[in-house]
Design a protein that fits this description.
single chain, 2 domains, Arc Repressor Mutant, elongated, mainly alpha
């Protein structure tokens, strides 16, 4: 990936402190700055950002490959399909694809703890299955009578929230 240069104004004291910290961490100043910016970006939920209706920031942030990917659509469809037929009957590569996608979700600002908790229930079953620690022929996350099962209401609310704001204006436009 091609990189670009950015400039920022900071106090001389902060610059001196950051240079010392970079040396102590055995990083270049540029590496440390890049890490800090990536951590800030990855850990800032978009819902916490006050944005007016004319802002271009929110649409740009929401134009997200993960949410608009075929793999994400496939995962959501599969989760609902398992509610009807919980049998384990797909190839393992399909489960690996879902597992990798769920692991990516924690980096995305739209996935809050509540929805991640539900996706992690699926992740854990998939991991056990792929590691050979699951010997049943059905998934249990989809069982409506399982108190620890997947909460489809949380998923329904999440799917609505990523598409529409509180005024029913579209947030996410599918390509």
């Amino acid at each position: 990936m091609k990189s670009t240069v950015i400039n920022a104004r900071i106090s001389q004291t902060l610059k001196d402190d950051l240079e010392i910290l970079a040396i102590l961490k055995n990083l270049s100043f540029s590496q440390m700055t890049r890490i800090a910016l990536e951590e800030f970006y990855n850990n800032t939920p978009i819902d916490d950002i006050p944005i007016n209706k004319d802002s271009q920031i929110k649409p740009v942030l929401l134009e997200d490959n993960l949410l608009q990917s075929f793999e994400f659509t496939e995962l959501i469809f599969w989760i609902y399909d398992k509610r009807i037929d919980s049998s384990i009957n797909e190839i393992y590569e399909f489960y690996e694809q879902h597992l990798n996608l769920i692991n990516e979700m924690h980096k995305h600002p739209r996935f809050n703890k509540k929805i991640l908790t539900e996706f992690y229930k699926i992740r854990d079953e998939l991991k056990f299955r792929l590691e050979g620690k699951w010997h049943g022929d059905e998934f249990h996350f989809s069982d409506a009578y399982n108190m620890d099962g997947f909460d489809y209401e949380v998923l329904r609310n999440f799917m609505y929230a990523i598409r529409y704001d509180e005024n029913n204006n579209k947030n996410l436009f599918i390509k």
